[in-house]
Amino acid sequence: MESTTVKLNVTHSKRSMKALELRFSTASTIESVKNNLEMRFGTSANFMMLKLVDTAGNTVASMLDNESKLGFYNPQDFYTIHIVDLDPSTVDLDNVENVDKYEISEEAYNALDVNFRKFKEEMKKSNPDLMKPNKPQVDDEHQADLIGDISVGNRCRINPGDKRGTVRFVGKIQTLNPGYWIGIELDEPLGKNDGSHSGNKYFECTPKHGIFVRPSAVEVGNFRPYDEDPDEI
């Protein structure tokens, strides 16, 4: 039989892993194919049964004769060799229900001289702040130094993004993070609100035209609406 190379996928009955487009010689015996696959999938060649499956998912042949050549079964590129694992001791590792788990009662766990729960409690006693989530420290005057040039009625744009609009609010918002916020009525419906936040009204505008941003994101100037800007095409 003339030897050619064929590209085959390989699947396993007890593993979710797949091998794609492995090259096999059609002159190889089924036994040598099994030995090759044993190194890849871990199943002993003695406990393998190989099926040849076409690209439509149909079983073409059960390759039972170890002495036969792979080419005898006429495999085509992109067919699949499906390994049926017949070893009763093989654990299906993809199904956690089949894996033995170590279990311990609540009473026995608490009776251990050392366990994670006790370790955690000791750490909390020695350093109460250790288990607290790290939150950025923002002071109540955050970005106060940036609001001096921003006044209600100013035309502005927001960077990044170059959204344009008019300043309608400068101040603090209790339902947002501490520090100063700028409320802007946008020229286009690219905002998130109507000048309200958490039920509190800070300025009037139509829905989706309102937005609150930090002063650092605001640039004031003679920024016309896009449809009135002579530099815009």
Overall SS class: alpha+beta
β-strand number = 12
- Overall mean pLDDT score? 86
Shape: elongated
How many alpha or pi helices? Answer: 3
Strand order of the largest sheet: 2-1-5-3-4
- CATH topology name of the domain at 5-85: Ubiquitin-like (UB roll)
Features:
alpha+beta, five-stranded mixed β-sheet, 12% helix, elongated, SH3 type barrels, 233 residues, Ubiquitin-like (UB roll), five-stranded antiparallel β-sheet
What does this protein look like?
One of its GO terms (biological process) is tubulin complex assembly. Belongs to the TBCB family. Its main location: cytoplasm. It is a single chain. The chain has 233 residues and is α+β, with helices and mostly antiparallel strands. Among the domains are: 5-85, Roll (Ubiquitin-like (UB roll)); 144-222, Roll (SH3 type barrels). 12% of the residues lie in helices and 29% in strands. A five-stranded mixed β-sheet has the order 2-1-5-3-4, covered by helices on one side. A five-stranded antiparallel β-sheet has the order 11-8-7-6-12, with no helix packed on it. A two-stranded antiparallel sheet has the order 9-10. β3 (48-53) and β4 (59-63) form a beta hairpin. The longest helix is centred in the N-terminal third of the chain and has 12 residues, at 30-41. The mean pLDDT is 86.
